[in-house]
Specification:
Number of domains: 2
Strand order of the largest sheet: 6-7-8-3-9-10
Helix content: 25-40%
Strand content: 15-25%
Bound molecules: adenosine-5'-triphosphate, magnesium ion
Number of strands: 10
Oligomer: single chain
Shape: globular
Largest sheet: 6 strands, mixed
Length: about 260
């Protein structure tokens, strides 16, 4: 199945990055169609998180192009890429533990605000109305992910499953076009994973494009429209879940021979 060019939201073309002698990402090329869920899988150390860091501007590639909505974004600073509509979560949850659940989401919303975080903290008069809007929007996102009743709690006291949901809520608060989730099911129990599954599919219904790094293959095969497979920094396969499950190179490198649907 060929992707229509105008349907491609994000494309990577020959993207490479080495840490010293270690080629973490090597000549990786693939596309992400608008409104789909694309998974990136592969063994530990394959380069998945590094790839996320390249797309989000936490790292700059040494070669290659990353095109988002028709614009080359590789090498741009992270805050600029975030403003263009790319939001992410982290493999190890990164929340502001000294803030409430609501405040954590408000931080995500500040990308869209005129005043920004610093002015917000200084409480200039013109920022107060904006602050109210941000608070209201943040509450809406908390309701959406089912965390509204926790709004006033400290983020630190949430169980891991809810922390992961909160991190997704913070990313969603910036109204992203593209959402990158780095192992969102890691540490979740079956019920929490099911909730995550439903959330990812609901986001797709709402038109948000998701790039998902995940080791939970049950979840991945169910939510992904397409899967890219990395091994030692190289793309070894890219296609729909059924084809990926049967791909001998993917089975040998990652899935194992006993993996079943
Ligand atoms: N900042 C860094 N400096 C040096 N080496 C790094 C750095 N970040 C990642 N690496 C190395 O690059 C390779 C790819 O790491 P990366 O974290 O992208 O893998 P991953 O696919 O996300 O693995 P996992 O499934 O364990 O999260 C690994 O060998 C890792 O040790
Ligand atoms: Mg990783």
């Amino acid at each position: 199945m060929m992707m229509q060019q105008n349907n491609v939201l994000l494309s990577l073309d020959g993207v490479s990055l080495a840490f010293g002698g270690l080629q973490a990402v090597e000549q990786v090329s693939f596309g992400v169609a608008r409104g789909t869920v694309k998974a990136v899988i592969g063994p530990n150390g394959a380069g998945k998180t590094t790839l996320f860091n390249l797309v989000t501007g936490f790292l700059s590639p040494q070669a290659g192009r990353i095109v988002f909505q028709g614009e080359a974004i590789q090498g741009r600073p992270a805050h600029r890429i975030a403003r263009q509509g790319i939001a992410r979560t982290f493999q190890l949850v990164q929340l502001f533990d000294h803030m409430t659940v609501l405040e954590n989401v408000m931080v995500g919303r500040h990308r869209l605000s005129r005043a920004g975080l610093l002015a917000g903290a200084l409480q200039f008069p013109w920022t107060r109305t904006e602050e109210k809007v941000i608070r209201h929007k943040a509450m809406e996102v908390l309701e959406f992910v089912g965390l509204a009743d926790r709004a006033r709690q400290s983020a630190a006291v949430l169980p891991l499953g809810l922390k992961r949901m909160l991190e997704i809520a913070r990313a969603l608060a910036s109204a992203p076009t593209l959402l990158l989730l780095d192992e969102p099911a890691s540490g979740l129990d079956a019920v929490e994973t099911e909730r995550l599954h439903d959330l990812i599919l609901e986001l797709r219904r709402q038109g948000i494009t998701t790039l998902l790094v995940e080791h939970d293959m049950g979840l991945t095969m169910e939510v992904a429209d397409e899967i890219a497979v990395l091994n030692y920094g190289k793309l070894i396969a890219d296609g729909p879940p059924r084809a990926i499950q049967k791909n001998p190179e993917v089975i040998a490198a990652y899935l194992g021979t006993d993996w079943q649907t």
